[in-house]
Design goal:
It is a single chain. The chain is α/β, with parallel strands linked by helices. It has twelve helices and ten strands. The chain has a five-stranded parallel β-sheet, with no helix packed on it. β3, α2 and β4 form a beta-alpha-beta unit. The chain starts with a strand and ends with a helix.
Length: 362
């Protein structure tokens, strides 16, 4: 019998549909295959795994959906694989551009497999029910991050005195997850917003863009992860990691479900992410509607100015007939949706191949 352990509750993302595994609270004895997540880089975390290993255990490190600032992870991971004589296999949803002393499965398709689910509430989203899109801009912004405060500021500056505000549906929750689920913490928000220059602080959280949270400050995440709530033609995206902070890795371009959502929903994407992200999407085959959208903001090297230029393009699009454009280009919308599904299946094929190999070796 092959014993498999899911040490960090990761089975729901990629491989749980193919394998049964023992969850952390039921671990007992030694295991032939142990799946871990990015938590393995934490102080003393690998030492918690070792007691469940036999000499031939394969430790599969699945960092899909958590690959932002990957350079920091790779530095720590190298030390782990140098110290412990086990067969490590790294699974990443972005290409790793450096040599590692272990097997690596790295492909953007794994991001689509990790995020395109019908039945998982957390960090993933459900397929929509083919509702029509109305002209306008939608932007859902969750966790408290510096780039979202700046996005909030520029949106307020661009729209709050404009007649175009009726076409905007922008939400900023600024939640944090401190182990008890996503909640809004006023003290943490005050501390981070204080890092903006004083004149900018006054323009954050205009009434149209105030912090929205559920009673008892709990967010209904499953609501804003459901594609049917993306009801407008343009989706203004703020990625988790954008290159704004000093510790952001500039050599590996990552993205999350936030970037995938407008592509599979059939919206026009405006994405604030790593500089070069749009080019990576084009290389994958996605149509970013460059004949209709001015994506020149993506070339701006000043991170704050790039956000401002992005918002200005969003404002310009509110003056265009975005409904007519999408209706006249349904074949291009379809191709983006089809490509999302093709990448999902490519990612699934990579995981099936891995499982075939490790089971046959046993």
């Amino acid at each position: 019998m092959i014993k498999i352990a899911d040490f960090h509750y990761q089975s729901q993302r990629l491989w749980g549909r193919f394998l049964n595994a023992t969850l952390p609270e039921k671990l007992d004895g030694k295991y032939d295959i142990i799946f871990v997540h990015r938590e393995i880089e934490g102080e003393g975390e690998i030492e918690k795994v070792i007691p469940y290993c036999n000499p031939n255990t394969k430790i599969i490190v699945d960092i899909t959906t958590e690959s932002g600032q990957i350079e920091l992870f790779l530095e720590r991971f190298k030390k782990i694989i140098e110290k412990y004589n086990y067969e490590f296999i790294l699974i990443s949803d972005l290409p790793i551009n450096q040599e590692l002393n272990c097997s690596v499965i790295d492909d953007y398709s794994l991001a689509f497999l990790g995020h395109l689910h019908d039945n998982i509430h957390s960090r993933t989203f459900f397929h929509h029910d083919n509702r029509e899109l109305a002209h306008g801009i939608v932007s859902y912004n969750g966790s408290l991050r510096t780039q979202r405060l700046w996005l909030n500021y520029f949106c307020s500056k661009a729209f709050k005195r404009s007649r175009l505000i009726k076409h905007t549906h922008l939400f900023f929750w600024y939640y944090l997850n401190k182990g008890e689920g996503p909640k809004f913490y006023q003290e943490d928000f005050n501390q981070m917003v204080s890092t903006l220059p004083n004149e900018e602080i006054q323009k954050v959280l205009h009434e149209k863009f105030r912090v929205h949270h559920h009673e008892e400050h709990r967010l209904l995440q499953e609501d804003w992860n459901d594609l049917k709530y993306l009801e407008h033609t343009v989706n203004l995206i703020s990625e988790n990691v954008t290159g704004l902070l000093e510790q952001d890795d500039k050599n590996h371009i990552s993205f999350t479900e936030k970037t995938i959502k407008p592509l599979v929903r059939g919206q026009i994407p405006l994405i604030h992410g790593y500089r070069g992200l749009q080019d990576e999407l084009r290389k994958l085959g996605f149509d970013l509607y460059d004949d209709f959208v001015d994506h020149s903001y993506e070339k701006e090297t000043d991170e704050i100015l790039r956000i401002e230029k992005l918002v200005q393009e969003a404002k310009r699009l509110t003056t265009c007939d975005t409904e007519e454009f999408l209706n006249n280009n349904q074949h291009r919308v379809y191709n983006n949706k089809k490509l999302c599904e093709e990448l999902l299946w490519k990612g699934k094929s990579l995981i099936i191949k891995l499982i075939d190999e490790i089971l046959q070796k046993k």
